[in-house]
Write a structure and sequence with these properties.
This protein is mainly alpha-helical. It is 22% helix and 5% strand. The protein has one domain.
Length: 79
Amino acid sequence: MTVSTREPPAFRDRIVQTAADNMSAGSRVTPGGYAVLAGDRKRDVAQFTLSDSRTPDEVYAAIRANGQEVVFKNWDNRI
């Protein structure tokens, strides 16, 4: 089960114990958001609302605190 950052942190921290095998962290929901510079908030028109704004390091720590192993995947830039 993939769990997005649209879910609240408390839900994500619990679901990782039973069903989640893929969890996003540090996501951008702006169309083309990864291409827009982080400081350019004037053009940041989010497509969805993020409920979990924790950094990848904070999500990593929460998953480890639940006794789970973390594997990172940096998605290909070939898209």
